[in-house]
Predict the structure.
Amino acid sequence: MASLGANWMLNDKMAIGAALFGNGGMNTDYPKPIFGDPNSPDAGVNLEQMFFGVTYSIKLSETQALGITGLFAWQRFAAKGLGMFGAMGMSSDPADLSGNRHSISTGFGFRIGYQGRLLPYLAIGASYQLKTSMSAFDKYKGLFAEHGKFDIPSTWNVGFAFDATKDFTIAVDVQQILYSGVKAIANPIDPMALPPAFPDGQGGFVPNPKHVPLGTDNGSGFGWDDILIYKLGLLYKVQDWTLMAGYSYGNNPIKGSEVLFNILAPAVIQQHITFGITRKINKSNELSVAFMYAPSNSVSGTNVFEAPNQQTIEIEMSQFQIEVGYAFSCK
């Protein structure tokens, strides 16, 4: 996913920056109707998120700086193969549940950050991003809780950088992503609330007094927990070269009891390993290449709509990424 950024100095203490970058997303595509939708030969979702940010930063002193960023967020989403939940009366809006084209959502948010040098060899950084309130996915009001709302969760970061030598830096960071503030992501699946009725044992059905269909304020979601991520980074400079390596570990947001819906979003990766290299071409230009590998991780649990221990579901995910970047300055 491409990203762009630029920075302009207003004077020797203030600057304005602008950046366009991806916030990740999720894509799954199963070649079979895993949820039993007779109108779709396959199943899956596609979520894409982009941010455009404008930052104002100011130097508070020679060793401290503060910045605030206004964010415009854009996202689009599509799902297929979920029509059976509507046919069974489990959605508040079956027409806006599955099989529609991409639906677009936008919103605004803010991020504030601080950077300072506590000692000549020790720096600190911290940031907080508010939850980004997004407009609803109109074509999927019958899927996501709060009638299609899919906000972007708040996050915070704190990190330290230690200059072991003038050429070697060690950095440690802690980040938390607060999924619990977004109902579409955090609400657990409730198999006793989704069905509109239950068999009465005499060939008929009785209404479910606790019926809470998909798409309502308290409708079932993906059941994700908040996560903490711990990061370690190393940076070493050799003449015109900069070598970088990193490792991160985070707890898993998905419990075994939530695997059914998370077939669509199996974000169970806990570790990331990164390597990068930057070559300074001249005073104004540099070229960077980075590689990321996320080892495979899996979570298993039972199908909550089946009898206990009748069906076990396992979701697994791994990733790799290659990134190329070019930076230049115009003076």
User: Anything to note?
Assistant: The domain at 4-328 is CATH 2.40.160.60 (Porin). The longest strand covers residues 285-302. The chain has a mean pLDDT of 95.
